[in-house]
Amino acid sequence: MKPPSAVEPSAAKGIAYLRGAPLMAFALIYTIVSGGPFLWVAMMSLRTTPEIFASPYALPSSIHWEKFVDAWTKSNYGTYFWNSTIVVVTAVALLTVIGAMVAHCLARYRFRGNRLVRFVILSGMILPPQLMILSLFQILLEYHLYNTLTGLIIVYVAGHLAITVYILEGFFAQIPQDLFDAARLDGYSDLEIFWRITLPIGVPALFTTVTLNFIILWNEFLYAVVLLTEDDKRTLPLGIMHFMGNHQLDVGMVATGLMIAIGPVILLYAFFSETMIRGMTAGAVR
Amino acid sequence: MARVAITELSKLYDGGGEPAVKDLSLTVGNGEFMVLLGPSGCGKSSVLRMIAGLEPITSGKIAIDGEIVNEIPAKDRDIAMVFQSYALYPHMDVFNNLAFGLRRRGIAKTEIERRVQGAASKLGLLPFLKRKPHALSGGQRQRVALGRAIVREPKVFLFDEPLSNLDAALRVSMRNELIRQQREMGITAIYVTHDQVEAMTMGHRICIMNKGEVIQIGKPLEVYRNPANTFVARFLGNPPMNLIPTSVEPDGGAYQLRVGGMSLPTDCWPAETLSRLGGKALLGIRPEDLYETAQRPDERRRIAIARAHVIAVEPLGAETLIILSLEGAAEEVTMRSGRETRLRPGDNATIELDLAAAHLFDPKTAQVIPPVHEEREARWAKAE
Predict the structure, then answer these.
(1) Residues 175 to 194 of A: which have CB under 8 A from any B CB?
(2) What is the count of structural domains for chain B?
(3) B27 to chain A nearest CA, in Å?
(4) Higher pLDDT residue, B224 or B276?
């Protein structure tokens, strides 16, 4: 006779699998839906346009790495890449410093009207960009910032301050007040406390906002396409338009351009996704 | 070293309500260890935070060494504080936690090194200098917090319930450590706690607070022996002082206290004061001033005999607490007895009250009725 304990674990395992099945199915479908198109574009980036038109979903028969060189050299990709880097790095740096300062103030100080200030800043999150694009266009024209990278940087910083402050404030508010009191008694001023206590302790949350802002801004298209018109000012997502003529569409080259544009984001996410998720879910170190 | 003088200090928090601190005046001498003792929410931490400069003062004055510091920001007051949560900087190792306050003051690197090493060796922290706070035990964190205060060599130490997060055994050893450090360095210290054992053992003097006001200030034993009112009588001592409602009845030219079926003489208290009580008083007597017959030391002379019924017996090992109801009285009283007792729940017993150690309180004002002095003094002289 088999001892009952030998049966039960396998039965329990089976039940556990069954319970996990809906979740697994969901995860599988989600992966196919979100990863499928990406893989498809990745494959197309290695095939020529005639090949693609002949059989859109086929695997690459011969791999055309030279398309990446073509995309970079035959269009203005170097410039676009450089523009994107300047705009995104500057905007993310400004967002991090300004956002952290605002979040520190909102989390730490009780001042007259602080709830109003918080409401005004955070309400920026609910306004859709399409709503503001006309007025922004007008304002930038007025201040001679239209068609400049500076103008785009300012728009990016303003547009993403809300979500940055929202994430950072939640984290900073959990840092125990005693730490700030201790630093004050140790002789430090409010600004020094921000640099020496809040920022270093808030590193996980800062990672989150840096990664998040970088990914979103690197891929940003709407503001860039409206606010930049000269070719040598364009950022990467606009560079792809280069391959879309008025009458014809070079699908293969668009795919290659997309893969170049998406590269840095994939790298960043691969390295920092863990830290980013930890920063969004974890509290401050006690 | 410094003298801290607080004059008519008040604190009213935003949102109104009762003031957290009301007209508090207190002077802490040079090198003195003053304990602020009271129940939670009595305003003692607010006082500490105002001295530190972490909380603005509503009215009144705080002076350190004669200089009024009301308007001086916390960072310039040269005060060190140890927090209940330890408040160690989580991103710095022990060395940098200790050195953080010194760096700000522009002290030379070699001197910082010397002071940190000195404090760390005093507190047994040398092996942990490179560790982050999360890798330390509760007791080690507490030591780092103390060390951070010590290296600064400040004018005043402030302690905000620093031992309440430690387990019982560690608390006793840290308590002694803290006393030793303070006595050695001779730095003025103000210590907030709600733990009466800490207050009794650590302070040169205790300041007992309730509802934002000072109730009584004095040396620990002085306050224990001579509580100013029923609040102090109940708050200090574990178990607290028995407070028995009595009636004060004229008896010829003098007065008698009647508790249930028992009459007690009142010659410890001036007759003139007793006459103003309106016939009612609270008799306060500590559990250790009640005796089982034949267990009383011989020198106690002012003894009253009472009959009582034993409700419960609680053996604590070193001593036994006996809960009694006095014959004819509703109140329960607690008696502290020796390791061995013959009494069992349900017994009827004869107990003895040491009247010379008893206190009488006015039930209307809750204040103590000052005894006739010679009697009391003689008793304590003998006891010591």
Answers:
(1) 176, 178-179, 181-189, 192
(2) 2
(3) 22
(4) B224
Among residues B231, B252, B269, which one ends one of the domains? B231
Which pLDDT does position B384 carry in this prediction? 44
pLDDT > 90 in chain B, percent: 59
Q: Locate all alpha helices (DSSP H) within chain A, ordered by sequence.
A: 4-44, 49-54, 66-74, 77-108, 114-122, 129-142, 149-172, 177-185, 190-193, 199-201, 203-218, 222-227, 236-239, 251-281
| Minimum Cα–Cα distance from A181: chain B residue | B54
Task: Indicate whether B382 pLDDT > 60.
Answer: no
pLDDT at A88 over 90: yes
Q: Min CA distance, B100 vs chain A (Å)?
A: 7
Size of interface A-B (CB pairs under 8 A): 65
pLDDT at residue B375, as a whole number = 53
Same domain, B348 and B296: yes
**In this complex, is the C-beta atom of B98 within 8 Å of any C-beta atom belonging to chain A?**
no
Does residue B80 sit at the A interface (CB-CB below 8 Å)?
Answer: yes
B382 touches chain A (CB under 8 A): no
| pLDDT at site B129 | 94
Whether residues B49 and B179 share a domain: the answer is yes
Mutate to test the interface with A, among B91, B97, B155, B190 (most CBs of A within 10 A): B91
Least confident of B142-156, B311-325, B370-384: B370-384
Looking at the structure, do residues B167 and B295 belong to the same domain, yes or no? no
Q: Which of B173, B203, B231 is the last residue of a domain?
A: B231
- Check whether residue B48 and residue B119 sit in a common domain: yes
Query: Quick one: average pLDDT of A139-143?
Result: 93
Q: Where in chain A is the domain with CATH 1.10.3720.10?
A: 70-281
- pTM of the full predicted structure? 0.80
B335 within 8 A of B286, measured Cβ to Cβ: no
Amino acid at residue number B146:
L
The length of chain A is: 286
Q: Are B238 and B193 members of one domain?
A: no
Query: Residues A91-104: pLDDT tens digits?
Result: 999 999 999 999 99
B75–A185 CB contact, under 8 Å = yes
Same domain, B195 and B245: no
Q: Which CATH architecture is the domain A70-281 placed in? A: Orthogonal Bundle (1.10)
Query: What pLDDT score was predicted for residue A240?
Result: 78
Q: Residue A159 in contact with residue A94, Cβ under 8 Å?
A: no
Q: Which residues of A touch B75 (CB under 8 A)?
A: 184-189
**Preceding peptide of B239 cis, ω within 30°:** yes
Binned at pLDDT 50, 70 and 90, residue B100 comes out as: very high
Residues of chain A found within 8 Å of residue B54, distances taken between Cβ atoms:
181, 184-185
B366 and B269 within one domain: yes
Examine the pLDDT at A1 and tell me if it is beyond 50.
Answer: no
Distance, in Å, from the CA atom of B335 to the CA atom of B228, rounded to the nearest integer, reads 22
Give me A157's structure tokens.
């910083």
Same domain? B26 vs B158: yes
Phi-psi region of B161 (alpha: psi -120 to 50; beta: other; left: phi over 0): left
Neighbouring CB atoms inside 10 A of B381's CB total 8
* B153 at A interface, C-beta within 8 A: no
Where residue B383 falls among pLDDT bands split at 50, 70, 90? very low
CATH number of the domain where residue B312 is located: 2.40.50.140
Interchain contact A120–B (C-beta under 8 A): no
Full domain range(s) for residue B361: 234-383
What distance in Å separates the CA atoms of residue B23 and residue A7, rounded to the nearest whole number?
76
Residues of A with Cβ-Cβ distance to B100 under 8 angstroms: 183, 186
**Contact criterion met (CB < 8 Å) for B54 and A197:** no
